[in-house]
Amino acid sequence: MNRILLLLFLGVFIPKISAQEYFPNNEGVQNKNNNYVVFTNAKIYVTPTQIIEKGSLLIQNGKVIGAGNNISIPKNCTTINLEGKSIYPSFIDIYTNFGIEKPTNNSNSGGLLYDTKREGFYWNENIRPEVNAYENFKYDQTKATELLKAGFGVVGTHIQDGIARGTGTLIALNNSDRSNRLLSNKITNHFGFTRSVATNQAYPSSLMGMIALLRQMYLDKNWYKNGNSKTKDLSLEALINNEKLVQIFTTEDKLNSLRASKLGKEFGFNYVLKGAGNEFERIEEIKKTNSKFIIPINFPEAYDVSNPYQADQMDLSTLRFWNQAPTNLKVLSDNNIEFALTTDKLKKLEDFRTNLLKAIKYGFDKTKALEALTTIPASILGKSAEIGSLKNGSFANFVITSGPIFDEKTILYENWVQGTKFVVNNIDTKDIRGNYDLIIENDSYKWKIDGEIAAPKSEITTANNKKISSKLVVANNWITALIKSKDTIKTGFTRLTGFVENTQTISGKAILPNGTEIKWSATKTSPFVAVIDSSKVEKPNVIPVTFPNIAFGNTQKPTQQTILFKNATVWTNEKEGILQETDVLVKNGKIATIGKNISDTSATIIDAKGKHLTSGIIDEHSHIAISRGVNEGGHNSSAEVTIQDVVNSEDINIYRDLAGGVTTSQLLHGSANAIGGRSAIVKWKWGLAPEELLYKNQPKFIKFALGENPKQSNWGNINPTRFPQSRMGVEQVFTDYFQRAKEYDEAWKKYNSNSKKDKTKAPRVDLELQTIAEIINKERFITCHSYVQSEILMLMNVAEKFNFKVNTYTHILEGYKVADKMKEHGVGASTFSDWWAYKFEVNDAIPYNGPIMHKEGIVVAYNSDDAEMSRRLNQEAAKAVKYGNIPEEEAWKFVTLNPAKLLHIDDKVGSIKVGKDADVVLWNNNPLSIYAKAEKTLIEGVVYYDAQKDEAQRVAVANEKNELIRQLLQEKNKGMITQEPIKAAKKEYHCDTLEQ
Known about the structure:
Layout: H1 2-13, E1 36-45, E2 51-60, E3 63-68, E4 77-81, E5 86-89, E6 91-96, H2 141-149, E7 152-157, E8 164-172, E9 182-192, H3 207-225, H4 234-241, E10 246-250, H5 254-266, E11 272-274, H6 283-288, E12 293-296, E13 302-303, H7 308-312, H8 316-324, H9 328-334, E14 339-342, H10 351-361, H11 366-373, H12 375-380, E15 398-401, E16 412-417, E17 420-423, E18 434-440, E19 443-451, E20 456-461, E21 467-468, E22 470-475, E23 478-484, E24 493-499, E25 505-511, E26 517-527, E27 563-571, E28 578-587, E29 590-595, E30 604-607, E31 612-615, E32 617-622, H13 652-659, E33 662-667, E34 675-678, E35 680-683, H14 690-693, E36 700-705, H15 727-753, H16 767-776, E37 780-786, H17 789-801, E38 808-811, H18 819-825, E39 828-831, H19 849-855, E40 860-862, H20 873-884, H21 888-893, H22 897-902, E41 920-923, E42 934-939, E43 942-946, H23 947-973, E44 978-979
Parallel strand pairs: 1-4, 1-5, 6-7, 9-10, 10-11, 11-12, 12-14, 13-44, 27-30, 27-31, 32-33, 36-37, 37-38, 38-39, 39-40
Antiparallel strand pairs: 1-2, 2-3, 5-15, 7-8, 8-9, 15-16, 16-17, 18-19, 18-26, 19-20, 20-21, 22-23, 23-24, 24-25, 25-26, 27-28, 28-29, 31-41, 33-35, 34-36, 41-42, 42-43
Helix pairs in contact: 3-4, 8-23, 15-16, 15-17
């Protein structure tokens, strides 16, 4: 099949290989041109930093022979004088889909597929490393012309579809010589975080699933490469064969760049990352990747905010990004991050130069801009000897300009690719701008010509300084002017024509209003000088970046403090109970001292008299701050995925949780499948990057699910085709996977126990079974979504069969029915305070559930499972007092110490005890009161929420939004292109949320 595609490609791509002399030519006389061409008297940019003044460039057969001031010019040489002109290397865009047809789904199946229909390839159809761009390529002359006009000479192109996308090819934009366009058929290997449109395969449906799939793919590649497989896999073979190509990962977001970089480093390599233009928002972390980048410059157009109601719907982060986006290139450059530029994502190619000049206006260095379009992309591809410069032996790819290439008024005349000229603007057009003495018959005038070279403007005044209306047109150095007569009574026009040979003196014919033909002449008295009105040159007012770069972000990352709380009511959650009028010293991120009359000269003192100090609230079950999917529902088990890969540090719900006193949460996979993904325990360190939010050395957890969700009861009519479809099917999934994981673990233990000489073929590393084996080995703990008593008992029975215990039942709304059995098994409960009747399997829920289980001796916690409820978990705890007469101190543990115990982190958090992490909250009232508000929330001694600061930030946010709206209105008044306001739509995840 590949050979057929290659032959088709050659038929389209190279229909006539006339440059190769052993091919016959039946379309004309074969004539090979070995002549030289030399360009003289030009300012030559051999590289962005190697510049030759009034130099010569010699080329032959599409290659650079030499560049310098003392070039020896051969006899068979055409000389082109470029006095006053500049020569630059043509641009390179290594990230395009040039000549590639947009992929489509040709499947006749309307439903989801759970297994591949392909034979001999990888088991997942989103993995397509065997796809080669050159086999699907067709030269697009129209698009090539657009790129040539923009200054590009070479492009890299690939199929922008799928997770493993296959190889890219390198193309010279030579519109004339088709035989030499293909510079490299395989030069790059591409990956991305998007599904392939060519498949209906359900897995992966989430970002975490895509990352897990890539991780498994690389493990499989190494396993296959070592000769362990009994079957042939063309996808893995292609992946192995393409290992030495440039590996490019399309991330399309700053956080995805961090994720891709981390994934690459797991397997010992560093991707070239195709970014999104928002790298400046996390520049410190971006720099630490040590990656090279490909950066788009598709800056957002201004928003039309003239309608105040529409403007009010816009999120501050959207307005701010419009303001800040043009700074991205400068910020990257200032941080010494190596990057190439791309035209990708632009609505129209003409915007590339406009946006690049805008970035330069915002401080991006012109030399760095040229490097990002020439030497750097060439270096990334390992092609520095061939493209990106005008060094000897490189392709003769260069542009000729009227002046500095990134000056707004500079004209691009020609773009030479492989020694073939492409005309953008006529280089022979003469610059007639300047001041002249104009004589028409016996009348004298002052003639000022300014504007653009190709579109000059005319201003004529009489001897007595009276302006006369005139219009001037220049085409192919022919000048045509229309001048209104001096007669104020009768309107007439004098028409001037003439050919420009010498810009110092111009002359020609004039036709007077009465039809009389006479001569005219104009003599230059002074040259044209561009005048810039400094009053119109506005310095961009750029809003400072915050961490995160949204409303209520920190202007600087917060730092650890020494803080002394004086005279507080301290809820210790320890045997000391609630202490009155007590001091607590926080130092080096820990609870340092608890007692009376504590002093520390280095501490910031907070008067906490009449206030309550507690440990931070811990939410055992949350779904906030997760990127692109809380469920990986493509399989009935997704144990290989982990929420740790997709923590979203930019979610405003983090700040809101802090305002509600929450310091730690477990971010759980949803309940779409019986065996879900691994969880992430996080501390809400607002402003820090995702990796810094992860709880250090955290215990291993995984989400399981029972009931309606994993058996797809409420998935509609299209989706419910995947096993299991019943509650007994869910049980069978557990039994099957645990048995397989047990056998998997035994196979590895046997293999690892063998001596070197006795080692047979290694078992395949299976991330899914490896994770489930950790449960059997008591190294990973289950948090299980549960409702109905029969299933609660079922999972405990399955666990006991495989000799482990279920750690936590979450929701567990029928736990009160089987509390004795739960106590016997040793499982904890993380439940709702008073949710019931929101679906059929919840009909028997009661608000006394938590207290009943607590009185049975079970460790009980209340969780949120909801972005809104997590902000008021203190009030949820109070409901244990209302419904179960639980003492206040014990009720408070439902959202602090007890969830810490369930998460196996109570040695560090959950109570106020000397040596524990200083994760504390200062309340203005009893924390169980509906009137209680968090005044300060600390994590490891860092204040991440301060109520007073919050009040000031609200004012600052309103002022900033007004300033941005003013700037946007100013853009519209200037006549700039605007777009409709965008209403920020934020997706809140719940257990059953599925990605579309």
